[in-house]
């Protein structure tokens, strides 16, 4: 449904996207994660059709997005720095969207007043807090029923209850209308709960994209207590190792069942294999790309 093929973008001489490719399947929720400056917003602006792309570089349902109104109509986008008309209230913006989008869902707009109850729709949007402005973005966007929703740091600035509310709105639209969602976020804990697929970006490249279950089935945390000398069995690929008292924590390649089987061959006193959280996967995958957490304060 969304396809980015070998996209490169320079800002003057700086390479912000370096042959980046990305694939989002219809009806899925795809989480785009990466370090600050990795290129997430830049690739998202190409997907939203804001930045120029060549005819085969960014495709929505097989058609190029750039300067293609028919394709752009399918897509709703909330940028990191959301923009409204300077003097407009929510009601003004609603009327504006209603005029240009025939399928604007007025019943939904009224129903969502209950969800965004702390916001008076008559107030000028510029007087609202940053988090409230984000809420207005969701409120209006979901009334347009886009087939594809692209969100850049959508919950940044929202309180925990509102974050849940927004994720649940999105998930119910995926279930009910089969919409497709591409979302960039640094909140990996929350992404883990909602995403089917994850793409990890670093230094302008998409390093990997996998289903969340595949990603979590490929790397395991082993906690091991040995009787004597610690032993690593043949075939167990250790990515990271820390020791706290008698407990050895090993981050290993492979799924938990295989890791458990392999470690049992060296007869530890105790061994437990558990899947890694998305946050742990992110840190260990990027560790290989020189993105390890630098222990500056606690060497
Ligand atoms: N308009 C611009 N002019 C020059 N450089 C830019 C511009 N926009 C982005 N960049 C650079 O491109 C790189 C990628 O930026 P981008 O905003 O896509 O990163 P990001 O992954 O969204 O980061 P963050 O998580 O911090 O929001 C950064 O090094 C940034 O400084």
From TrEMBL:
It comes from the Bacteria. GO terms for molecular function: ATP binding; ATP hydrolysis activity. The lineage of its organism: Bacteria, Bacillati, Bacillota, Clostridia, Lachnospirales. This is ABC transporter ATP-binding protein. The keyword Protein biosynthesis does not apply. Keywords: ATP-binding, Nucleotide-binding, Transport. Pfam families: ABC_tran. The keyword Cell cycle does not apply. Residues 2-228 form the ABC transporter domain. InterPro entries: AAA+_ATPase (IPR003593), ABC_transporter-like_ATP-bd (IPR003439), ABC_Transporter_VariousFunc (IPR051782), P-loop_NTPase (IPR027417). Gene3D superfamilies: P-loop containing nucleotide triphosphate hydrolases (3.40.50.300). SMART domains: AAA.
